[in-house]
Amino acid sequence: MPNSVNLISPRGYCAGVDRAIETVDRLLEERGAPIYVRGEIVHNQYVVKTLADKGAVFVDSPEEVPEGAVMVLSAHGSAPDIYARCAARDLEVIDATCPLVSKVHAEVRRYAGKGATVLLVGHLDHDEVIGTRGEAPDQVIVVEDVAQAETVEVPDPDNVALTTQTTLSLDDTAEIIAVLKRRFPALQSPASSDICYATQNRQDAVKASVSTPDMAPELVLVVGSQNSSNSQRLVEVARAGGAASYLIDGVQDLDPAWLEHKPRVALTAGASAPEVLVREVLEFLETQGYARKGSEVPTDEGVVFALPPQIR
Q1: Per-residue pLDDT reduced to its tens digit, 219-249
Q2: What is 15-98's CATH number?
Q3: Could you confirm whether 150 is annotated as catalytic?
Q4: Which residue of the set 63, 64, 92, 128 is catalytic?
Q5: Are 232 and 168 in contact (CB under 8 A)?
Q6: CB-based contacts of 200: which residues, under 8 Å, 6+ apart?
Q7: Class of 4-13+197-294 in CATH
C-alpha cells in the first residue's frame, strides 16, 4: 500500500476565530492603519504576523494606545477592568470576543451575583481564563487538574458553581468535574456545556482517525501555534490514541525524520490555524511520496457568528 496522508475534517478556523480575524481585516480596509489590538487576536503566529503586516498594532494594555483610537479586544475575552481602562482613554472599543466565551463571562457574573464561589476549570495562565476570572476575581477559583479538584476549599459548599474554559474538551474536564460534583453535591452548572463545539468536533475527528482499525495513522501532524490550547489538546488526543504526534506552526517546523517508517500520516489543524498552512504541509508530504486522501473541505460545521455591530 502506498504512503498516504489523510486530511482530517473538521480542522482549522472555528466561527469565533473567523469572526475575530475578519473584524480586524474589515477595520483595516474601512478605517485604514493603524488598528490597535489588545493581545493576540487569536493564538496563531502566522495570523498575527499577517495582520501586523497590514497595519494592525498588537499591544498589551489600553495605556499603549493613543487616546481616541480604535481598540479591538481579542477573541479570548477581556476582564471588565480592561473596558474601564479603554473608556478612560476614550478608545473606540470593537469587541471581537468569541460569543461562546461571552457566554461563560455571563455565567460567572450571574453566579457571582448570587454570592456563589465559581470554580473555573481551565489553565490559570491562559488569556481566556484571565479574562473570565476578571469578572469576579474574589469569587472565582481556577481548578487546573484533579489534584486541585480534590483539595480546593470554598467558603460555602452549598453555594458553589462550575464553569469551564471553552477550549478544553469533555474528556479533559470529565474527571475534574466528577471530583467537584462528588465533593460539592450542591454544585450549580450551566444548562449547556461551556466546551466550544469546534474544540470538541476537532478532537472527536482526531480520535476517530487514530482508532480506525487497520487504517490508523502512525503519525498525526497538527498545524497550530504552541500557545494555542485547543491545538495542544489535539496532539494529546492523537498520542492517547497511540499515534506519534507533533504541533507545528507550519511546514518549516516539520522534521522529515518523523516520517521514517510512517506510511500513514494524518493532518489536521487547531481552531485558530489557517488552511493555507495546512496546504503547505500537504504539498511537502506529496513531494515525499504521500498520496492525499480524506476531506478537501476543512469544515462544514455551518456555524457563523455575526460581526461586531460597528462593522456590519
Answers
A1: 999 999 999 999 999 999 999 999 999 999 9
A2: 3.40.50.11270
A3: no
A4: 128
A5: no
A6: 169, 170
A7: alpha beta
